[in-house]
Specification:
With 708 residues, the protein is α/β, with parallel strands linked by helices.
């Protein structure tokens, strides 16, 4: 079970709901009488996984205490002391987060008891539902457990036993999680930080002698994020795949196929009607060493004379050569295969990769991530997978991996999670009797996710296209329900709804092929910038679920129409004209609350320039980097300026990612703002140079828009 980290999402926490019963309410004198805990696994309470023990306090139990919890001295005669009971509880907890009500009291009593018992006290990581409830509903009539439970409709039966009170606290925590998410409090670190800002409540508890109900930390703690091996996230399938796959005729005998594999020292053989490589993946089947062994074990030596196609598998499971190792490993794990065909961008066979090819790569974390995404069945599962993204980004930054590669990986994970949210929505709709999709369709991710440039503060930008159907017709209504479900799943899983409404649940971002073509034609014909709000990110689309051919046809139409009308691309380029200067009058950074917005002053203008010019010159590349490099190859373009912007883009992405990783550890809501003061002097100088390069964009848009 994974330990708690700063990035652990509240709705997917592995934790122990905890409570004690004591001899009194004065922390200086109170003694522990009972310890109780109930496990939460992936944010779900597990009543069957509980811990409870009485504790001998070594002092008489006051009658007034017995009147509350029913524990008498007679009941404690054979109970262990705290010196034995607490280590047993810690063995049960296994480093998990502790959740409880008024935990400051319990922690203060436990610390005193530990010192009395000669135990080394190490404060566990905790969250107090009393503190969290005050964040969500400061107008509760009182802060009692009963009042909070009544507000959240949590059953309080069995009160004043440690296990029952722990169970109540756990159910309150689960009920609070969506309310906290609405206030952008989604992770353990964010909940800790929000609790630390409740100064009045903390002051009152301190006056009563309570401990703080969370670990107060300064700086970025060493345990903020788990350590992972980044290798599977920095290499692509094409690096390990065979350059020229061995292909044989499908009518070959099994014995000859085995000899061919032995000759080439390979563990699989691809088969086709013509025995040639380079065809469409659908044309091939595959036979492996294990297939041959199973055939011989079943049919004896006679099996070797049979046709190899009889024991081959079809269709072949394939992965694109541009995919990262972690994606291929996840596909192998999901499909339970050890060999994958490798395809090029057009779906043609270009190689083969096997599990053996990955043995030299330490890929445990990568397999785990893809498995978590593919096996997710609830929003909490998706949230748990998304929380791993920060771990990956942190590890890759430490390895000094190109920040653009990290952003591409984040985008890939975002797209995978979106795809799984779509699968979950489809399953729910079928279970609800709404049936299967009425026509073929596809779900697209737009914006930074579509460009492969997502950072850790990603939100939703998505759209749906379906083969046919009128606006508000039966097909559209079906996909409206589908879109609302999968976007709600993503929102619950810590990928927030788009504030600008660029989502398939909005009719403007959903439609048939005919509707989308009409929509694109209208965009291109517009003459006012205000009519083109959010239209630009449509050109950053990527298919994540459904029929890719629908999206490819729509994208081709959009790029063709965009290139035909210069005024359209020019208007898109106008969006960078009014971005304010990031510098003060005296050359310093123009900061707000000690931070500089690098999206506003850097990432947005660069991406917008690259997109507008790529549309104008019909260069349908996906990423900002690819667009700038393609533009730089045109003979009349200012090559040095475009490449300088490419390098500035890389630097700015890196600085934002570093800040976001630090902010996750500190529980600060994520944004694209960086604290300039945290940068070394050399980085501050490079930042100024990068932003000065960005300053040429308005003039560059004007000059390059009409270059041939």
């Amino acid at each position: 079970m994974r330990p708690v980290t700063d990035a652990t999402p509240l709705i997917a926490a592995n934790a122990v709901a905890f409570d004690t019963e004591t001899t009194g309410l004065d922390v200086r004198e109170a003694r522990i009488l009972q310890l109780g805990g109930v496990a939460l696994v992936n944010g779900c309470l597990q009543p069957g996984d509980a811990f409870e023990t009485l504790v001998d306090p070594g002092v008489p139990v006051p009658p007034r205490s017995t009147a509350i919890h029913g524990i008498t001295g007679q009941m404690l005669r054979t109970a262990p002391g705290l010196a034995d009971a607490w280590p047993r509880f810690e063995a049960y907890r296994k480093g998990r987060l502790l959740i409880g009500y008024a935990l400051g009291f319990d922690l203060a009593v436990l610390e005193r008891e530990a010192h009395r018992a000669g135990l080394l006290w190490q404060a566990p990581r905790t969250l107090c539902v009393r503190m969290l409830a005050g964040l969500v509903n400061p107008h509760l009539p009182d802060a009692s457990l009963e009042a909070i439970a009544a507000w959240l409709e949590v059953d309080t039966s069995g009160r004043h036993t440690a296990t029952a009170d722990a169970r109540i606290a756990g159910e309150i925590f689960i009920a609070l999680a969506p309310h906290l998410a609405e206030r952008d409090i989604r992770t353990v670190a964010e909940a800790e930080r929000a609790s630390s800002l409740r100064s009045q409540a903390l002051r009152q508890q301190a006056e009563a002698g309570w401990s703080e109900p969370f670990l107060r930390r300064t700086g970025a703690p060493s345990h903020a994020l788990e350590a992972i091996d980044p290798y599977a996230f920095r290499h692509r399938v094409r690096e390990a795949a065979t350059g020229e796959p061995v292909v044989a005729h499908e009518d070959l005998a099994v014995l000859e196929a085995a000899r061919l594999m032995a000759k080439h020292r390979i563990s699989s053989l691809l088969l086709s009607a013509d025995g040639r490589s380079g065809g469409s993946i659908a044309e091939y089947s595959i036979v492996t060493e294990r297939d041959v062994l199973r055939a011989v074990a079943s049919g004896g030596g006679e099996a070797l004379a049979g046709r190899v196609s009889a024991i081959a598998s079809k269709p072949v499971i394939a992965v694109q050569g541009n995919a990262f190792f972690y994606q291929a490993l996840g596909l192998m794990s999901r499909e339970k295969v050890r060999h994958l065909a490798v395809s090029d961008s057009e779906g043609h066979l270009s190689g083969v990769i096997s599990a053996r090819d990955f043995l030299k790569f330490r890929a445990g974390a990568a397999v785990d991530l893809q498995a978590r995404i593919e096996n997710a069945t609830t929003p909490a599962d998706l949230a748990g997978a998304w929380s791993r993204v920060a771990v990956i980004a942190s590890a890759l930054l430490d390895e000094e991996i190109d920040a653009r590669i990290i952003a591409e990986i984040i985008s890939g994970i975002l797209c995978s999670i979106t795809a799984n949210a779509c699968r979950m929505a489809l399953q729910e709709m079928e279970a609800d009797g709404l049936g299967a999709p009425p026509v073929s369709y596809a779900v697209m991710v737009l914006g930074s996710g579509g460009r492969g440039e997502s950072l850790l503060a990603a939100d939703q930008d998505n759209a749906v296209i379906f083969a046919e159907g009128d606006p508000d017709g039966p097909e559209d209504k079906w996909f409206a329900v589908f879109a609302e479900k999968f976007t709600d799943y993503l929102h619950t899983a810590a990928i927030p709804l788009c504030r600008g409404g660029v989502m398939a649940r909005n009719p403007a971002w959903r439609g048939s092929m005919e509707t989308w073509r009409t929509r694109v034609d209208a965009w291109v014909a517009k003459a006012r910038p205000q009519d083109l709000l959010n239209v630009d990110i449509f050109y950053d689309l990527r298919t994540v679920y459904g029929e890719e051919a629908l999206v490819a046809a729509l994208a081709a139409h959009a790029w063709e129409k965009g290139a035909e009308r210069v005024e359209f691309a020019k208007l898109l380029g106008e969006s960078v004209r009014n971005v304010g200067s990031p510098f003060t009058l005296f050359g310093g950074f123009r900061q707000e609350n000690g931070r500089l917005d690098l999206k506003l002053h850097g990432l947005f203008p660069i991406a917008a320039l690259a997109r507008a010019l790529a549309i104008r010159h019909h260069l349908p590349h996906a990423s900002t980097r690819a667009r700038l490099e393609a533009l730089a190859e045109l003979p009349t373009m200012p090559r040095s300026d475009l490449l300088a912007l490419r390098d500035a883009h890389r630097f700015l992405i890196g600085r934002v990612l570093e800040q976001q990783v630090e902010d996750i550890a500190a529980g600060i809501p994520l944004s694209n703002h960086i604290a300039v003061d945290r940068l070394a002097s050399g980085q501050q100088k490079t930042l100024k140079d990068a932003l000065r390069t960005v300053a040429i964009i308005p003039e560059l848009v004007r000059s390059a828009m009409f270059a041939n």
